[in-house]
Structures are given as C-alpha cells and as structure tokens.
Amino acid sequence: MVVVETPTGTQPGTAAARWSALMAARAVPDEILAHAPASPYRQDPERFRPVADPPDTPSRRVGVAVLAESAERTVLDVGCGAGAASLALVGEARHVVGVDPASDMLAAFVGACLEWGMPYQAVLGSWPEALPDTGTADLVLCHHVGYDTADLAAFAAGLGAAARRGVVMELHATHPQAWLDPFWQRFHGVRRPAPPTADDALAVLTELGVEPEVQRWTADPRPPEDPDARVVRVTRRLCLPPERAGEVAAALAAHDGPTAPPAERVTFSWRP
Q1: Residues 57, 55: Cα–Cα separation, whole Å
Q2: What is the pLDDT along the chain (272 residues), one digit of tens a residue?
Q3: Contacts of 94 (CB under 8 A, 6+ apart)
Q4: Is residue 95 a contact partner of residue 70, using CB atoms and an 8 Å limit?
Q5: 3-state secondary structure the chain
Q6: What does the domain layout of the chain look like in residue ranges?
Q7: 14-181+189-224+259-270, which class in CATH?
Q8: Burial zone of 116 (CB within 10 Å; 0-12 exposed, 13-18 middle, 19+ buried)
Q9: What are phi and psi of 106, to 5 degrees?
Q10: Closest Cα partner for 54 from 90, 97, 80, 94?
Q11: Of 219, 221, 237, 225, nearest in space to 173 by CA
C-alpha cells in the first residue's frame, strides 16, 4: 500500500501571496453571487469532451515522452473534466486516474473512458486534498485548472508529490475569463483588476524550487459554439437571470474587443 501525504501548511512566499491576492481580487462580489440564479462557476462537460484525433500539442508530446519511459504508463489527470487531456493519450497510457470536484464532470470522464476502452479510476474531490485517494502516477496532468485555485503553491506542490516521472501543466497565457471584464462593468458596474497570467504562475513554481520547461504556443480554434448556447453560458457566467440573455447577446455583438479566451497557451513541464 502506498501512503501519500497531502501537502499542507504551504508558507506563501512573495509570488504565491501575489497569486492568491490576484485571485481573491477577481472573485465575484458576494452581493452579486448571492442573487445569481445559477452558479457562474458551473461548466458544461460537453465542452470538454475528448476528441478522436487530438491535436499534437506541446503538452501531449511531453506526456507521450514521459510515458515512454515507464512500463506501467499510468496517468493522473487533476481537474480531469470530461477527460480531454488524459484521453488524448489513448494508445500511450495504460491506466488513468481522474480527479475532479464536479460530479457531472467526473461522470463524463467515466463515460469517455468506457467509450474509449481506457482502464480508469474516478475520484471525486478537490486538489491537493484528494491526493491520498489518487495515489501516485508516472505522469501527472493538469490542464486549465490553475486559474481555478487560489493557493497555487500547495496545488503545484501536490502535483509534484503525486508524480513519479513527470508533470505537465497547461494554462492559458492569461486568465481565460478576463475577456469578460468589460461586461462585468457594463452589467454590474464592477471594475475588475488585472488578471493573473502564466508568468505569475511560473513565478510561483520558481519559488517552490521547480524549474519547468516552458513552451508557449497557440491553440487551434475551437469548433464553433451554438450562438444561443453561448449566450446562455455567458449570461450565467455574468450572474444574470435568463430573461436578460437578449441584452447579453446585443452586448456581445456590439463589443469591439475579444469575445473569447485567448488562443495563447503555456505548457509547464518538470520532473519531480
């Protein structure tokens, strides 16, 4: 039996404290959240499903190289969503553990593993608290979860603690919801502060003593989203009631700035 201790009591240094402060400053104000008709943090699992022909990204290439060094070829996918990151390694991985705090995401992950014939274990929980339940793996993946955690130092330390051979962490170059900032001001009068970036995340890793390989790249465009579904999603994200969806649609159409997360990505990879 393998016993893995959860990293706790991380003492935040300058970079870790800055990350936490940036995240706290961008939290939805309590008075707005209290009147939201639905959680603005909910995600649709369908938007994160794996694809049959995954793109050959830097993150996937590093993952393939790490797994090639092991006979077991086990993967731990932290914040697995519907399994897009780990199931991009079908044919390379032999067993995948997915951990996610959302039960609907985890159900989608299980369904995808069954569909793709991938041996799996599903763990419902948050990271790094779930580390004792997941155990260790040859490769630890964490795609697009960093901007969802306030304590990035403890989060990243947990990734390293769980990895026997390598960690691959993928982020947007800047906070993926920052493009919504003008709409928060328009609909709520909330002026949001500057968002954290991948460079801020890199500073946290460096402070932990991690020296990752850094690869900056541009993702292929996502498939077009149904316009009505997009408006519904953005309306919920802005904590607005469904009857204001028409206003949101008009605001999106009239906006002369970005109306989607940036295509720029950053891959951090390191050996434990």
Answers
A1: 6
A2: 333 444 444 455 799 999 999 999 999 999 999 999 999 988 888 888 899 899 999 999 999 999 999 999 999 999 999 999 999 999 999 999 999 999 999 999 999 999 999 999 999 999 999 999 999 999 999 999 999 999 999 999 999 999 999 999 999 999 999 999 999 999 999 999 999 999 999 999 999 999 999 999 999 988 888 999 999 999 999 999 999 999 999 999 999 998 889 999 999 999 98
A3: 72, 73, 74, 119
A4: no
A5: CCCCCCCCCCCCCHHHHHHHHHHHHCCCCHHHHHCCCCCCCCCCHHHHCCCCCCCCCHHHHHHHHHHCCCCCCEEEEECCCCCCCHHHHECCECEEEEEECCHHHHHHHHHHHHHHCCCEEEEECCCCCCHHHHCCEEEEEEECCHHHCCCHHHHHHHHHHHEEEEEEEEEECECCCHHHHHHHHHHHCCCCCCCCEHHHHHHHHHHCCCCCEEEEEECCCCCCCCHHHHHHHHHHHCCCCHHHHHHHHHHHHHCCCCCCCCCEEEEEEECC
A6: 14-181+189-224+259-270
A7: alpha beta
A8: middle
A9: -65, -35
A10: 90
A11: 219
Tokens 């993928």 identify what position? 170
Q: Among all chains, which residue has been given the structure tokens 């369908």? A: 46
